[in-house]
Amino acid sequence: MDDLQNYKLQLQQVEAALTTDPSNEELLKLKIDLEEVIELTHDLIKSQQQEKRQANGMDAKDPILLAVLANKWKVGDQCMAPWSEDGKYYEATIDAISEDGVVNITFNEYKNTDVTMLSQLKSVAKRPASDWADQKSKKNASRCSSRLRS
């Protein structure tokens, strides 16, 4: 997934260079090559996701399933999404949703980007109120102890 982001970044750099030298044939060729690599990488990711779905017995191309999932999620939503490197779920933000159910996400903690399917997203688990109360009391206790030291 990082490769896809690197290709996109390289394409932006080439496009920026083309603004100062729009007739540079090497840059024009590089731009075309990068666009092709990005498209092929995206297709590969889609293919891998589809294989994964079929192995799990899910058909994410099912229009009813896609409609239900598309109504549940929208760009900017927080979710739990699997990271392609380890298959574990982490908190993420939805960046884009395509018509075929492919979702671009950014993981909140390290800002890694990845691509997954709508069918693989989960709601963010809510923390119990007791966790928030414990965290608040710890903050208050540290404030009090730092005031006492002053």
Q: What do these coordinates show?
A:
With 150 residues, the protein is an alpha+beta fold. It folds into 2 domains: 1-55, no CATH class; 63-123, Roll (SH3 type barrels), CATH 2.30.30.140. It is 54% helix and 17% strand. It has 4 helices and 4 strands; from the N terminus they run αααββββα. It has helices spanning 2-20, 25-55, 63-72, 129-149, and strands at residues 78-82, 89-97, 102-107, 113-117. Strands 1-2-3-4 form a 4-stranded antiparallel beta sheet. A hairpin with a 5-residue loop joins strand 3 (102-107) and strand 4. The radius of gyration is 22 Å and the shape is elongated. It starts with a helix and ends with a helix.
Give a quick set of tags describing it.
elongated; 4-stranded antiparallel β-sheet; 150 residues; 2 domains; SH3 type barrels; alpha+beta; single chain
Using the CA coordinates, give the radius of gyration. 22 Å
Provide the CATH top-level class of the largest domain.
Answer: Mainly Beta
Termini separation (Å)?
A: 50 Å
Q: Strands of the largest sheet, in order across it?
A: 1-2-3-4
How many domain regions? 2
The main sheet comes to:
4 strands, antiparallel
Count the helices. How many?
4
The CATH topology of the largest domain, please? SH3 type barrels
Q: For the residues shown, what is the average pLDDT? A: 78
Sheet-strand content, in percent, reads 15-25%
Question: What is the H/E order?
Answer: HHHEEEEH
Principal-axes shape call: elongated
Helix content: 40-55%
